[in-house]
Amino acid sequence: MNYSHLDSKRVAVVFSWGTATTVFRGICHCLTDELLGDVLRVVDGDDAAGQSAVILQPSCAQLSINAGDAYGCDFRVEVARMIDKVDQGDAEFPAWNDSSVLGEG
């Protein structure tokens, strides 16, 4: 899928974790990384040094992209619900690739 329509646009990245939701807002840059391939780098526009950023690898994530002014941005990118239940023995570092702990969304 081509994500060039997101380049240089204000994007809200929405993460859902159980019943909580966290939103990161910034300017999206569509890049190609030699190790990761195509990535979306969303940089906090208020951070002049560019230290605050979210990097998404669309080929490895379930992303839902919607146009509109949600969260004061041009687009909303929802990352598939990360975890609905966490193994209490490893709550601090959940196994992201373990399908038994991933929520259905």
Distance between the termini: 21 Å
Strand order of the largest sheet: 4-3-2-1-6-5
Instruction: Work out the helicity level.
Output: under 10%
Determine the oligomeric state from the structure: single chain
Strand content: 35-45%
What profile does the largest beta sheet have? 6 strands, mixed
Low-confidence regions: 83-105
> How many helical elements?
0
The overall average pLDDT, rounded, is: 77
- Helix/strand/pairing class, anyone? mainly beta
Shape: globular
> What is the H/E string?
EEEEEE
Q: How many β-strands, per DSSP?
A: 6
Radius of gyration, rounded?
A: 14 Å
What does this structure look like?
The protein has 105 residues and is mainly β. It has no helices and six strands. It has a six-stranded mixed beta sheet with strand order 4-3-2-1-6-5, with no helix packed on it. Strand 5 (63-67) and strand 6 (75-79) form a beta hairpin. Mean pLDDT is 77; it is low at 83-105.
Summarize the structure.
Helices cover 0% and strands 41% of the residues. It has no helices and six strands.
Chain-wise SSE layout:
Layout: E1 10-17, E2 20-33, E3 37-43, E4 53-56, E5 63-67, E6 75-79
Parallel strand pairs: 1-6
Antiparallel strand pairs: 1-2, 2-3, 3-4, 5-6
Features:
single chain; 105 residues; mainly beta; 6-stranded mixed sheet; 6 strands; 41% strand; globular; disordered C terminus
